[in-house]
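Renewal narrative, Specific Aim 1. Our central claim is that a sequence can be written position by position from structural information alone. The example that follows is taken directly from our test logs and has not been curated for this report. It begins with the structure tokens describing the chain, in the order in which they were read.
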């Protein structure tokens, strides 16, 4: 009886990891084949993903009247390399997380995206605006509870969704990859027990526009950049005009406590 329960538990675990794993499990009939070691399981899973899975996303960037199509392809092995890493659950205080470990400016997926964006938008401001356009096209969701964890940029790109922290870490990775200094900005909700928020601050040589909003750190201006999107109208029609730009802070954040995190 215990053996049957154990087999069932392993099969469920494998099925939720990948649809392709079902074929592997169906071909196994012995308990010792199902109860593979953690290292062997990861090796098989990586092999399957590398051979059979590619994550594709087509993004559109629109800056200063210039448009660009940006196809993003992520291999299963690249995704699993990050997905397999241990990370801290956010049931602890989100402002105490070590975010720096999730910033990956030198990852090959990030550098490839950087090079293609830079070729079309060479100025720092235009590049920063293009990065915002990119993260705005990733579905933003807000968790119903504190049971969530930090993700690496490649995970967010492959999965096509993320929390404000995930989108902000992706944006900072792309900015730092292009040698644009950026910080994470944490907003502390004035209502006790309510979730906070995160976006980014971008250092530029001049104001992106008159009256642009910024935070100061070490005597330098970091212009606020909201990484969650507002590109959809009340009728769910796509509109570039409604998306946040560098130097704009959502009005709902007025009056919240703020802290910057250097990463």
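The sequence written for that structure reads:
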């Amino acid at each position: 009886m215990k053996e049957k329960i154990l087999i069932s538990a392993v099969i469920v675990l494998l099925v939720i990891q990948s649809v392709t794993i079902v074929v592997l499990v169906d071909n196994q009939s012995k308990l010792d084949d199902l109860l593979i070691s953690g290292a062997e399981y990861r090796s098989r899973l990586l092999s399957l993903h590398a051979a059979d899975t590619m994550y594709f996303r087509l993004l559109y960037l629109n800056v200063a009247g210039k448009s660009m199509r940006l196809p993003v392809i992520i291999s299963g092995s690249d995704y699993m390399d990050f997905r397999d890493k241990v990370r801290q659950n956010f049931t602890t205080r989100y402002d105490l997380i070590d975010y720096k470990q999730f910033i990956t400016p030198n990852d090959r997926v990030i550098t490839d995206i950087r090079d293609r964006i830079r070729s079309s938008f060479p100025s720092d401001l235009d590049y920063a605006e293009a990065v915002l356009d990119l993260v705005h096209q990733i579905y933003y969701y807000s968790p119903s509870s504190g049971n969530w964890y930090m993700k690496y940029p490649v995970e967010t790109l492959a999965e096509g969704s993320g929390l404000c922290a995930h989108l902000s870490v992706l944006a900072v990775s792309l900015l730092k990859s292009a040698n644009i200094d950026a910080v994470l900005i944490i907003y502390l909700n004035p209502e006790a027990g309510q979730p906070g928020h995160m976006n980014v601050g971008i250092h530029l040589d001049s104001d992106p526009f008159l009256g642009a909003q910024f935070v100061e750190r070490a005597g330098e201006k970091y212009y606020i950049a909201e990484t969650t999107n507002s590109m959809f109208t009340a009728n769910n029609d796509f509109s570039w005009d409604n998306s946040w730009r560098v130097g704009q802070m959502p009005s709902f954040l007025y009056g919240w406590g703020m802290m910057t995190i250097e990463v």
